[in-house]
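DM from R.C. (forwarded with permission)

"hey, sorry to bug you on a friday — could you get me a structure for this? deadline for the figure draft is monday and I only need the backbone to look sensible"
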Amino acid sequence: MEKADNVSPVPSAMVEKAAFADSPLSDDGFDNPTGIQEKALLRKLDLRLLPAVTLLYLLSFLDRSNVANARLDGLTTDLNMTGNQYLTGLTLYFIGYVLFEIPCNIVLKKTSPQRWLPTLTLAWGVVATLMGVTQNMAGFFVVRFLLGVTESGLFPGVVFYLSMWYKRNEQHYRIALFFSAASLAGAFGGILAYGIGFMKGVGGLDGWRWIFILEGMLTVLVSLASYRFITNYPATASFLSDSERAYIHARLKNDSDATRDEAFAWRNVSLAFKDPKCWLYGLGFHTLSLPLYTLSLFLPTIIKELGYTAAQAQLLTVPPYACATCLTITVAVLSERYRLRAPFIMASACVAIVGYIILLSAPSAGVSYFGTILAASGIYPATAIVLSWPANNVSGQTKRATSNAMQISIGNLGAVLGTQLYRSNDGPRYFVGHGFAMGYLVANVFVVGTLWAVLRRENGKRERGERDGRLVGVDEEEWLGDEDPRWRFQT
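My reply, with the result:
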């Protein structure tokens, strides 16, 4: 399960011990002469790494989804856009996102997180602020496309970044915690939009313009500070002592490829494209991205169409996102405890399916609103686990970075379609949009079930020694990435 490329030879007995250790917090795989407490060190890493990247992703999701709140405050009216033209602007965001996702992760591999992640944040913060001074539809289209381009590298970049700090069994919970910022952004976005809406007329600007300007300026300020609070990899982290750095290197060397000094090579990029499992990870997110982004981009409108005022709708977006945040963390903890991924994804998707069945069938506003809570409560936990899966299962740094970016790119093609489904004349029931979202969630259950079967079958073959032929002629200490028979996939 947990051996990978390493810089120095590791005895096979040690590999065996590390690979099948029962606890992700076990010291059995390597010597610990310094007496460092692993749990205390993990807490130190969590406090230093997770708040920083989670804050960046919260701002990222806030800046991409606040357009839904701005729409209720008059964006389309002031820019003289029809409902369909507004949807085109949403689509352009995801086109920019998909096109630049993989190139951005390649840049990350060739540069460093401390430079690249804050620079991306600064770029999209400036673009998000400019949304507030857009004067026409053409400007709206250009800014939305550029926002997608500049935000595209953050999520896959952070997933790769965390995989260089934590053991495989420790990554899932932390990536899920990081992703919970998406639902938290939805909750904050509703509250902020409600308050900022009262600024209408300040400086001669409408309230929707202040939503973009203030939230964009906040991102710019945070990005400038993040050059100091985003650190690079363990080998150069200044907040670690030499003994802590050596300890992290030892524990990762026995678990993953994080300590390997892997030079960038296009051949390693191609390995991801040739692996069918990487495409299945992408389809797993593709079948979730449509309901994920249609919910985040249209939830205020969906709630308003149930009969509430614009101000009420802004506030009523908070409970669904609050429930989603709590369940994302809870399901991540359970998934980590039981070392299972696929069953929790499928169960969460089924909860969301029930939510959309309610939205499609319930004529009552109150019952339909409950459907939105169930939809959010299922979509976000499932997405968090799906997005952490390739980070756990793909070995080879460049292959993993490419696979992470592939997953988001393939996934966001679903969002491109989703942005065209909630048309103005379809409200208040939105049969087309809700129907597509439910259908995609059903497809997700089948895709994840297929991937689960593929991974279990491959693990079984390796347990029975059916893949040992790959080691013929290979040095004992040489590592073949996730094609190595000693590697075990998390299911």
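R.C.: lifesaver. Residues 122 and 223 are 5 Å apart (CA to CA).
me: no worries. The first helix runs from residue 12 to 19.
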